[in-house]
Amino acid sequence: MKFNKISKAYIDYFGKNAITDLKTIIEKNINNGSSIPNILIGGTQLTGKSTMGKKLANHFSKGKFYSVGGFFREAAALANISIAEQSKLLRIIQENKDQSSVEDALKRLGGKRLDIEMDYKTCQIISGINQINPQIKEEENYKYLVIEGRQPATMGYFTESLGRNDLIKIYVTCSSRERAIRFIGREIGEQYAIEANKFLPTSTEKVNGPLSNLTHEISKLPIPNIDFIVKEFEKNQNRDEDDRQRYIDLYGMDYEDIGYYDFVIDTTGETSENNFNKAIKYLNDINFEKLLKK
Question: In 10 A of CB 256, how many CB atoms?
């Protein structure tokens, strides 16, 4: 069946009641009338999904923003490793090719499968665990969630099979060329991103191909610390590949498959404001605000 792998992963890690517990959360919220809509934003890094998510959480009344990437970054900081190294270690564990390497990776991650823990946490939040938590103060109650990361939409797709509804799943994409330029801007400054835009090729193969297609061109850019930039760029593209393949192996779900999404926004060549407006137009078209008044 479609969700056998993800169900097995959760049950093997958390115990036989893992899926039943999610169903119970969903059913309690439905019965209590406390279920709230979620906007789930997925996609790879450097596409602008975090910026969009934060704006969407502030646009309507009483929204709450979560970044799944933020959960992973916090865990990486606690383990004193980079986010790219964390992804590599999780991939080693998932592939399970060498027991010694797996044990070392687990040790460096504190003995935890952080990916499974974070993904299940995401499913709990989507299911509505906070809406049935009596410890949440009245003034902290919110009317909708915006959850951003690589896999929130696929986790939402799974919870829909358990009875969850009112989930809006948005995929944010961007050309590889523009993602590379954004990476340079993030690492050493916007002025160098402008320079990169002048020199990086604009052929279809380079613009729409994998990020690795641009490594050589980036190494030739006339900007400072280029060796460091190339090294960090390679780490980031490896992180993309590690994360995507790990999720496919672990859950049988590819978060880049647009079949999991209701709406796709291509941020290439657009300002963050224009991209945000595209999202708002879609939400208005589906009468999202009516969901907030249920």
Answer: 17
